[in-house]
């Protein structure tokens, strides 16, 4: 069953990275919203 392992691991890592990216974007938008800064948001779009 190496095939399932090789496909499952990258998908798991990818999903983890997506969650991290969304969390960072959410925190960044919260942090910079009061300052009116959209720079970080535009960089991550």
TrEMBL record:
This is Uncharacterized protein. It comes from Anguilla anguilla (European freshwater eel).
């Amino acid at each position: 069953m190496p095939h399932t392992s090789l496909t499952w691991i990258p998908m798991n890592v990818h999903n983890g990275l997506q969650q991290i990216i969304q969390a960072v974007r959410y925190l960044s938008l919260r942090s910079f919203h009061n300052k009116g800064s959209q720079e970080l948001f535009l960089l991550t779009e």
